Every structure is written in C-alpha cells, then in structure tokens.
C-alpha cells in the first residue's frame, strides 16, 4: 500500500482531497488504483457500509483518531492531512530544519504589501464589528487576488502560500464568528498544508492554535489538547515567538482544564505567563497578537472549568479592564465571562450588575458567537428568575435578543466555501 500511495502523491486530486480532509475522495482514488474496498475498510477498521457512505459523500470522517489511523494505514505523510509528523516518517536530517527556516526568511519575489494591508484591514474591522459579514470579502480576496498566484509561474513563491494560509485561517475565524463551525474547521484544515508549503513554521503553529480553540468551542477537549501540543512541537523549529508560545500553552491549559486535569492545566498556565513575559524583537506579519488581555480571558475560562471561581473572577475582571473599548467583540465576551462566574459563585446581584453593559452591546455586531454566549448567560440566569433583579434583567435581555436575531438572520443561513 505504501507504493500505491507514493504513486498518488503527485496527483493533484489526491493532495487536494487530503488538504480538504475529504476522505471519501481519498478512498475512491485508492480504490481506482486497485485497492479493494474490503482491504480499505479493514485497514482503517470501519465496516464496508460505513466506507461506502464516505465514498458516496453521505458522511465525512470527523474524528482526529480516524484521520491518524488512515494516515498510518496508507502511509500518507502527516502534513498532508494537517497532522503531526507520523512515527514512521523519516526524521528531519540535521540542519534541514534550519535550511527550511532560512528559505522561509528569504525575500519573496513579491513584496506582499497588498496581502498584508488586506489582512490588517480585515483584522481591524473584525475586532470592532465582528467577522460575520466580512467572511465573503475575505473569501473573495482569496479567490481573486491570492489563488491565481499559487499556480502562476510568475507568482510570488512562498509568500503567496503564506498569504493563502493566513487568509484561509482568517476565513475560518470569520466562519466561526458566523456560527458555522464545520465550515471553520474545513478552512483551518486547508490553511495548515498551505502554511507548511510556504515554509512558515510560526504560521503553521498559529493555525494549530486556532484548531485547538475551535475544538474547545465544540466541546472536544481531547482534540483541543492534541492541536495545542502539535503547535508547540512545530513552534520549537521556528524563531522565538513568545506570544505564540503563550497562546499555545494557554490553549493546552484550557483543554486540560476542560478535562478537569487541575495540576497539568495550572502548569500550562504558568508556562503561558512565562512565555508572554519574554521579549522578542521579531514581529510576525501574519499572526494576530496574543496579549495580556487575551491571556486573562482564556485563563478565566480555564479556572472556571476547574471550579476555582475566585481565581476565574479575578482573571475575567482583569480581561475587561485590560481590553481596549474599541474591541467590541472581545469586550462583550469578557463581560459575559464575568457575569457567568458571578452566577456560579452564587452572587446574583453581582451577576446582574456585570451583565448591564451587555444590554448595550450593539445589535449590529455581526457575531453569532457573541449572540450565543449571551444566550448561554441568559440560560444560566433563568433558573433564578424568581429573584426580581434577575427577572427584570432577563426581560431587558430578551428584548435586546429579539433585535439581535433580526439583524443576524442572514448569518444563520447555511454557507459553503
């Protein structure tokens, strides 16, 4: 089977299917090369009926463990599926990592100023007004301005792949902000191979942090921990990046906390603080900053999962005080965390007081993610509705929600890439 897959590595259909994690197409291509469906099913330990569902597009492979099993069964290099290097893959020769990094740092044939300017504009607009209605603009820029350069002989080489990776990751975040997490996952899955092709180690590690965050959002702590560890392993081979390392350690801590692993989670948070306190002159153009406010907000969620509510509250309040008032979405999420922690501590008056700023969250903020967090806060408060201040707050909150849902209706419809 190894020789069979080796013959497919030059087939664009195969590499594209791997990048998109479209295992149905991968299985069909293996079958067309003479591998029986019985052998394919046995190799990945699924029934033939389930295999036919994958091949016919009736269902998709979703579990990380199955992607790993497929990679190992057919000797598909891990990076093609967005996985860590597999144990059977040849080790990197001494000096090879340094040569790869040197290539990444060489000036590209294009200066990339247009792509970087677009990223900065998208990022600034996203922080203030949410990513929901920016998604189409990002995908259009990818399609019209970046994608043609990936296949053009006169394209900008590695820079074009880095731009494609960064913007594809950004599209994933905007899909997530629109409430389309499956679509976000597909974007992150496509971004990682692009980053690897570009040779940009830090960008690849950053994308794994995004995948870890998404896994946490959908309640998959095991996958979240996996992606954080993969990112930390990747980042070791790049130049110093304290903020990125802090983000990866924080995601690892969040995943461990969600699994109620108190001591390892606390240790990862210490590593995050240590990394963020380090200094580096290097500024990576594609990576969104990870600062003290972001760390405080994530740490509050970790301590809340560990039921250490006093610590969670201190960090949540720090996130509010540190966050710039122009970061509308981040500020709203921080206020939600403060109010939710107060409820869990049993202080309803403090929860209502903390929730008051949320009543003034702009209904035009194009973030389904924020809307869902506000709904979750309402559900947390609802069992205490008999208490008059809570009841009055919920009445005002429900009125604000009605206005929000009207303006977000277009974002809640299905999307395709």
From TrEMBL:
Superkingdom of source: Bacteria
InterPro entries tied to this protein: Cro/C1-type_HTH (IPR001387), Lambda_DNA-bd_dom_sf (IPR010982), TPR-like_helical_dom_sf (IPR011990)
CDD domains reported for this sequence: HTH_XRE
A single MF term (Gene Ontology): DNA binding
Protein name stated in the entry: Regulatory protein
Organism: Streptomyces alboflavus
The organism's taxonomic lineage, starting at the top: Bacteria, Bacillati, Actinomycetota, Actinomycetes, Kitasatosporales
